[in-house]
Amino acid sequence: MAVDDFHSSQQPLLLSNGNGVHANNNNTTFNFVSLAKWVLKFTMWLVFLAWAALFFLIPTDFGTGLYDDWVDATSGSLFGETGSSLLLYSGPIIIIAFLAVPYLLISREQQLQLQEKKPPKFRLWTFPVLVDGPLGVVSAAELIGIILFIIYVIWAVYAYTVVNFEILPSYGDLTLKEKRVFMLQMSAYCFGLIALSCLAFLFLPIARGSILLRLFDIPFEHATRYHIWLGNLTMFLLTLHGLCYMIVWAIRGIIPSEIIEWKSDGGANFAGVICYVFGLLIWVTTLPPVRKRYFELFYYTHQLYILFVIFMALHIGDTYFSKAAGGIFLFMLDRFLRFWQSRKNVNVISTTCFPCGTVKLELSKPGNLQYNALSFIFLRMREISWLQWHPFSVSSSPSDGKYHLSVLIKTVGDWTEKLRGKVSEESQIELPFQHHSEILASVEGPYGHESPYHLMYEKLILVAGGSGISPFLAILSDILHRTKKKKRCLPRHVLLVWAVKRSNELSLFSITGMESICPSFSDQLNIEIQTYVTRESESSLEQGVVHKAVSSSALSISKGGGISVLVGTGNKLWAGSYVIISTVGFVITLGLLDTFYINPFGISYWWTLAREEGEEDGEKIDTMQHIEGVTDKDLGTLARSCSVRYGCRPDFKEIFGSISDRWDHSDVGVIVCGPPTLQSSVARECRSQNLKRRSNHPIFHFNSHSFAL
Length: 709
Hints:
Pfam families: FAD_binding_8 (PF08022), Ferric_reduct (PF01794), NAD_binding_6 (PF08030). Keywords: Membrane, Oxidoreductase, Transmembrane, Transmembrane helix. The structure is a single chain. This protein is α/β, with parallel strands linked by helices. Among the domains are: 79 residues; 173 residues. It contains 21 helices and 15 strands. Strand 3 and strand 4 form a beta hairpin. The radius of gyration is 28 Å and the shape is globular.
């Protein structure tokens, strides 16, 4: 579960500004909080291990016997056998979600206590093990998870096969061919059961605002990788499931009749065929060549998950569906909130066009909407398309302004071309009697890490490729603001390595407020910037001059408001409350249906539905906080603090080797945002430096930020 790894590694982040006397006065409270946190963590571990053990035990005779005993003992309850299965399979993950609420609230309070700085050490989540291959960069912790899943699949196949051989004699005297066909049929059935176990986890990583992701402090962009891996494994198992059945039916000559068979009590084969077709369409559009070239097709096709879930439930029935119901329930809660959040119109309060084809949008937000640097949002512009949603990294830090956040959007497709055209039209309005029209957006998010993990390292290396600079502008701004305002800020040495194709992209630096880099900060903060212009052999600019933004405009604000606070980072209490309230409401509603309708009238259909309504909790704040512009003097300061090299790419072996010699024994955070090749190159060098490091050399901790979510 690795809750310790996340939170223990982040203990030095948020420290109290109080003194030792204050800490001593609160020693009793601190001990009580630590005890409560330990009890909650132990309970969550216990529930999780019991839940995981259930999946390993069910394929065996012993596990089947336990399940039958459980059903016999609880089948006489209000919810019957379906309720028993639901409680057994989906109950544990809901219980963990409930317990996560007080645990996260306590952890937040405990992080305010004064903590000693811990010595440098390796961490499973930031040590890259696999850097090449179809899975991309895989950390040690992720590799352990992959191995455990592979072990489970192999174990389940073996256990089910042993059980199948044991029950084979009970079917009487069969010929060798009949035995082979029977074993193939039972294998098909087992592949379906194993795929269903994977489905129990499939929807958990993509609940963007889930309390479980907050518990592990895994941002949605990272969790998406786990969803992709689980999706590939699930489709592989479902393909084996269907293929084996088709072979059995072909041997018996009953393919047409079996395919169209539809049983009302589960086992509807035709529903299974439809479910598989939807799943296959979803999977095909996730393949990198299709997804990158036809993102809209990928996005729209993914909405078929609703039909996939419905027909899957029709195919397997209520008892088996309860195995995956917990994850689906948490996902649907999150999806419901995102739907309500996205209905609100959000004001675009200003726009800026850069010569490199990038557009900057500043979006209105309420003051109580929290987010961290390295966050991102999903954005829809109705003037361009009512259906298209696109993810973008937030380029502003929370310190840039209380009532706005910014995103940088690079022009790379039809949607972004139309957006730039719209912004350019607005920026060309100069006459006093001409009014800027309003631009409204729909926003989901912001999403990201609950804790500002870039602040946990005293030394940082930021590596960006092209538009991957966007989240690092937020990090630099956050660090600069904290240092300038004398807020607690651990980073003292920052190295930014940025590779771009053309020098006109350097104008993006103008939004960071780099005027804060001045001699008065040299004793507190050291920022070094290495820029590589790969497709220009020499500078096309005058020495000491950087491209500026070519146009900017402030837009009228009237109809819209700020981003809704329904979904996003920071508010752990709300994130847990809606899960608890919705779950309790669902159980009560289902209980009332069972008591007054289903049981009295003998209704046995598993698909009786209950729905819980929610309401939006947001406020409209139209206040715009002015941001100081960047002057020519500021840009000159940037040019002097930034080394630009033309016609070459960064040599990470040289860069990391130099850092190892210069920086002493410490934890160095390495954050990469760029294409997969760039991430692999940096991860490979981090791994190499860590494996051959000397005792006085730093430990490099690899972190990646999604470049193409």
